[in-house]
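Example record

The entry below shows one chain as it appears in the dataset: sequence first, then structure tokens.
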Amino acid sequence: MSEVYAARRARLRDQCAAAGSAAALVSRPANVRYLCGAVPPGAVLLLGPVQDLMVAAEVPATPPLSPPAPPPSGSPRAEEPRLLVLPGADGDPVVAAADLAAADGAESLAVEEHDLTVARHRALGAAAPRLRLADLGRCVEQLRLVKDDEEISCMRIAGELADQALGELLESILVGRTERHLALELDRRLVDHGADGPAFPTVVAAGPNAGRPGHLPTDRRVEEGDFLSICLGADYRGYRCQVGRTFVIGPSPADWQVELYDAVFAAQRAGREALSPGRAYRDVDRVTRQVLNAAGYGDALEPCTGHGVGLEIDEDPRLTPSAMGKLDACVPVTVEPGVHLPGRGGVRIDDTLVVRPEADGGPELLTITTKELLAL
């Protein structure tokens, strides 16, 4: 994998050079991990004019390292960034990295302004006043859009783990248990099956809470006649996958529940079928919304019907009405329309898919738990 990370850093270095920056400072944790693999908490990456450094604050049980000597003039750049651990826990890796870039002769430094606080940006400028600061923008996020085979393999396993945890929960008794209890059980099952942890706070929403996006589980107990919405994800080797389903508790669903579920299911299917290379982000959102608008649920729709997923559960691209850009092959996204009716509940159906051309079988579904309306 070291060659993969080196190639990613080389692509970023080339982009920075084309924009006129001889050095770049990457501080967003997911971006640092993408470029280096496993990293110490809070570490930043400096792609410098002389050497590449990973700078981290000292953590307990980690002995401080002396500053690395720069490679001899004319020597090839080291394949792996050198690690510099700052002595003392109060040092700021961002400020230290900027100071090192200036000491190595950099005249400009591209930084991730969208990740830095105003205070940190000011401290960075004060530490190296001769450096011209430029905005790196979302260059690394754009590099992360298209996943390689290894990344997709990790996400495929994460999807399997989430499906497995959800499937096992559905075989247990649900009536009388609280949302919070069920969410904790799902988290435990994820870890038991090999996940590093949940990909995000697990959503369990019953009765009037069902279908509410990002619902935090409460002590509300599951009752017969409820809609029960569950959304969970697994984190496997840093990569994440998301699945969401809605069920009915009791012997059979009410007519209004069947009608609402069928509308959301049809919308979700339309969104999944629209995932193809070259398709505009906004088109995927549009075809999903059209179905629910036609069913009379337009006022209950959310601003986003899907998003990218990978090292973060919510990353580029965004599937929204105003999104700019088009899908590429090997881009994982979610399709997750939902409708919540205040006081009654609602339906959410979430899947994670990888965009594939029609010649390769179309979009690859990573989450395969049944989407049939089950009465549990």
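Notes for this example: The chain has a mean pLDDT of 92. The CA atoms of residues 62 and 220 lie 44 Å apart.
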